[in-house]
Amino acid sequence: MTATLTRDAPAAAPKPPARRPRRRLSVPHLLLIPAIVILLVGMGYPLIWQVITSTQEFGIKQQFGQPAPFVGLANYFSLATDPTMWEVVVRSIAFCFITAAVTLVVGLLLAVLMTAVGTVVRLILQISLLLAWAMPVVAAMTVWIWMFDRRRGLVNYLLDMVPGVDMNRFSWLSTPITFFIVASVIVVWMSVPFVAFSIYAGLTQVSEEVLEAAQLDGANGFKRLRYIIMPMIRPVIMIVLLLQLIWDLRVFTQITMLQDAGSKSSEYDLLGTYIYKLGAGAQDFGMASAVSIFVLALTLAISWFYVRSLLKEDEQS
Question: Which parts of the sequence are annotated with region: Disordered (predicted)?
Answer without folding.
Answer: 1-21
